[in-house]
Design brief:
8 helices; 8-stranded mixed β-sheet; 28% helix; 283 residues; alpha/beta; 17% strand
């Protein structure tokens, strides 16, 4: 039984099933005591109450609607619901507010584990639960994709919120990483005031590092000493991140479910990377 989501989605009641229709629109996610955020969505024509729910994280331009539009064709004939939350620079400023999920920066205080969900990371699971309720589903988990700044958000979400019900996460072309070891101070690594890192839980999640082989430009690429220590390009930094994960998991003697894949001939292009990510997110 296919379904449609409409503007009435914000009313928090399940949308009625309707045969053969594709829904696309926008609603506000409201969480008591917090700023509301707009969420752009699209459903595949074959979407049912048990559709795969994919959360799509935008890049540095905070352009969730554009990212939703990218996924419209990718899920047109699939049993999928895509939701793209938008985190404005006013409410979630700079890299600390968005790329780092609202975690404190290197000079901040991350000793209290509850801080991890105080910022942008605290919106993701409520968003999943809201969409699941509104389509009348019983999904146990969701998938998540991010490109560029969104990929920074996603890989750190896996690192620091490892018990969230994520089925598979894809981080595509991140500009820089929080290395899963103590090779550098937080946020470049786990040394100093980093949030608690549960290696067994984090490495046990299905995270795909997706890299474009031509993503070697420097536009919007962080170039300070700490970032450059990870490599000169996004491609080099992604390879280094995965290599560090391999070494850290071996050192900790825990299983690693992370994967790294490279997309030939693709540069810093969220459209092409999204097309490559569908295989991992939906099958």
């Amino acid at each position: 039984m296919a379904l449609v989501l409409s503007g009435a989605l914000a009313a928090c009641s399940p949308s009625p099933p309707a045969s053969g229709l594709l829904g696309s629109g926008k609603f506000e996610l409201r969480i008591e005591g917090r700023e509301s955020i707009p969420v752009y969505y699209v459903t595949g024509a074959r979407a049912t109450e048990e559709a795969t729910i994919i959360v799509v994280m935008h890049g540095v331009e905070r352009n969730a609607a554009e990212y939703r539009n990218t996924w419209t064709e990718l899920v047109r004939d699939r049993d999928v619901v895509v939701v793209a939350p938008q985190f404005s620079d006013d409410d979630f400023p700079d890299a600390e507010g968005y790329n780092l999920g609202g975690l404190a920066d290197i000079d901040g205080d991350n000793d209290d584990d509850s801080r991890v969900l105080d910022g942008a990371y605290g919106y993701i699971e409520p968003l999943f639960e809201s969409v699941r309720a509104r389509i009348g589903g019983e999904q146990a988990g969701f998938s998540i994709f991010g490109h560029s700044a969104g990929a920074q958000f996603v890989h750190r979400y896996v690192e620091f919120v490892p018990h969230a019900p994520v089925n598979v996460a894809v981080a595509a072309n991140a500009g820089w990483y929080t290395m899963p070891d103590e090779s550098a101070p937080f946020p470049f690594g786990l040394d100093g005031d980093a949030p608690r890192f549960d290696a067994s839980a984090a490495f046990g999640r299905h995270l795909v590092i997706l890299l474009g082989t031509d993503d070697v430009g420097t536009k919007n690429l962080r170039r300070d000493d700490e970032a450059r220590a990870q490599g000169d390009t996004r491609l080099e930094r992604g390879r280094e991140f995965f290599d560090r994960a391999l070494r850290a998991s071996a050192r900790e003697d825990v299983a690693l479910r992370w994967e790294m894949h490279e997309v030939e001939g693709v540069d810093h292009d969220q459209v092409a990377m999204a097309a490559a990510a569908v295989h991992y997110l939906v099958g």
